Amino acid sequence: MPSLVCGFGAAVLTTIPGVKSFACCLIVPMAAVISINLDHRINKSEFPVKAGTAILFGIMTGIFAALFSTAFDVLITSIFHTNDFVEALPQTEALVKQYKLDAILDQTLVIFKQMSKDISYYGFSVFYTFAMLISNLFVNVIFGIFGGLVGMSVFNKRTTKS
Known about the structure:
- The protein has helices at about 1-15, 25-45, 50-80, 85-100, 105-120, 125-160.
- The protein is elongated, with a radius of gyration of 19 Å.
- The chain has six helices and no strands.
- With about 160 residues, it is mainly α.
- Helix content is about 85%, strand content about 0%.
């Protein structure tokens, strides 16, 4: 499945520090475009690409990218017992205290501290893993759909010219 291969490739790229910032905006949509292209090359499908097909490839690429990137994040976190979340928590706490934000954020900070403690001690936090998976699924699927539709537009425009 091209979506599986491209989702895996996108997930690998999202584990690289610095490149991780572009995961949602560039990497996942490009993976969806490449996925459509690979499917048409492998199956020798005819153009034009239908919107439903483009959306399906975008969704599948986004799901696979989210699953693999979450798995890689959990693996790296379990090895090193730290991650970006643990490193950024003190600054987040300082920001909340500085602006004297609502009591609900104080409770959120208690949960965040527990997650950070779990990651530091055990290398794993169930709540962090669940939150990361849901976040990755939501963002990657939306941008995957966007990439699929852009890919459809590009490939359909290319075929009408030729």
